[in-house]
Design a protein that fits this description.
This protein is an alpha/beta fold and about 350 residues long. About 30% of the residues lie in helices and about 25% in strands. The strands form 2 sheets. A 9-stranded mixed β-sheet has the order 14-13-12-11-7-10-9-8-15. A 6-stranded parallel β-sheet has the order 3-2-1-4-5-6, sandwiched between helices. β11 and β12 form a beta hairpin. α5 packs antiparallel against α10.
Length: about 350
């Protein structure tokens, strides 16, 4: 029989409800056993067999729980992850890993001491558009990449004072919320840059935290990588733009998995992760001596692959795709981006 991993989920807000719970329950080898909700019992509405508890200590003390998912505000990530590891649990923590890279390093060391898995939910590695550009780059179809741009354009002109991500709390703002995704993707594609330059701002009236960033990563003998986002862009530009010596790729629109999850769909849906044809990326390149201009079908997104890999790692010893060291490096680049923006200088990258 297939071994079952009993899972406890801390937090049933946006991330816990819309991402983690439906993905956990889509993996045959995982059982969502307990959910921590401080006041409500709403998790039982969709998952009647789940036990709702009020305290994370209930998960830490439950010997039957194998894996704990931490889907709380960033400010709490370090403490919950530390306590879960000390309780002898495998741990997945929502991105960003921690607010400070020093906290991430200490948790990595603790996981090694406890001989437990530690991973961070960098689900955007499994976006269909990112999988597509990774495949294009891996095959060298665009040649040597020279100029790469990742953009996250949103239009949210009013500050939501009730949202913790809009507060002045450590780990709030779009730098930790959105830039962390793009930084992880850049690291996954190109490795560690040699230098970083950033412009981080508050653009909206009454903003308490950053709502704009423009980050440039410099690679020795590699592309210039620009990562940018704003909450004041009504007209959205391309999500991904890649230019190389053999051609270019331009992709508009966001991966459809988040919207599908918000609609209550799961990876069991027949069209899960599939992009709409009118949002396929545009490819303009020279191939086999011919000039090709056209659309290329977006690869299907697969957030469930993250959880399946975690299961396979714990149960079968498969290599972990999202390693905690990767997530720690991303947090370190966030810190260097802040330093660069405050000083107005380009910063040499050091971990």
């Amino acid at each position: 029989m297939q071994r079952k991993l009993k899972v406890g989920l801390i937090g049933y807000g946006y991330a816990g409800k819309n991402f983690h719970a439906p993905l956990i329950t889509s993996i045959p080898g995982m059982e969502l056993a307990k959910v921590v909700q401080q006041k409500l019992d709403s998790a039982k509405e969709r998952y009647p067999g789940v036990e709702v508890v009020r305290s994370a200590n209930d998960l830490f003390q439950d010997q039957s729980i194998d894996l704990i998912i931490i889907a709380t505000p960033s400010t709490d990530h370090y403490t919950f992850t530390r306590d879960a590891l000390l309780a002898g649990k495998h741990v997945i923590v929502e991105k960003p890993f921690t607010v400070r890279s020093s906290e991430a390093r200490s948790l990595i060391a603790l996981a090694r001491e406890q001989k437990k898995m530690l991973s961070v939910f960098h689900n955007r590695r499994f976006d269909g558009d990112f999988k597509t550009i990774r495949e294009l780059h891996g095959q060298g179809l665009l040649g040597r990449l020279t100029d790469v741009r990742f953009s996250w354009d949103r239009y949210m002109p009013k500050v939501d004072v009730s949202a913790w991500r809009e507060s002045s709390a450590p780990g709030a703002g779009i730098l930790y919320d959105l830039a962390i995704h793009f930084i992880d993707q850049a690291l996954y594609l190109f490795g560690m840059p040699s230098h970083i330059h950033a412009d981080i701002r508050k653009q909206r009236e009454h903003a308490e935290t950053d709502d704009f960033f423009d980050i440039v990563l410099t690679y020795e003998n590699g592309p210039r990588v620009t990562l940018e986002a704003s909450l004041l862009r009504r007209e959205k530009g391309p999500r991904y733009t890649l230019h190389g010596t053999k051609g270019s790729f331009v992709k508009y629109g966001e991966d459809p998995q988040e919207e599908a999850l918000l609609q209550g769909l799961t990876p069991a849906w027949a069209d899960w992760g599939k992009d709409k044809p009118d949002r396929f990326g545009a490819l303009d390149l020279t191939f086999a001596g011919q000039h090709f201009i056209g659309r290329i079908e977006t690869m299907a997104g697969s957030y469930e692959q993250y959880y399946q890999n975690v299961y396979d790692h714990i149960v079968h010893g498969a290599e972990l795709i999202v390693k905690p060291e990767d997530a720690q490096a991303a947090v370190r680049l966030i810190e260097l981006a802040q330093e660069s923006s405050e000083s107005g200088k380009t910063i040499a990258v050091n971990l």
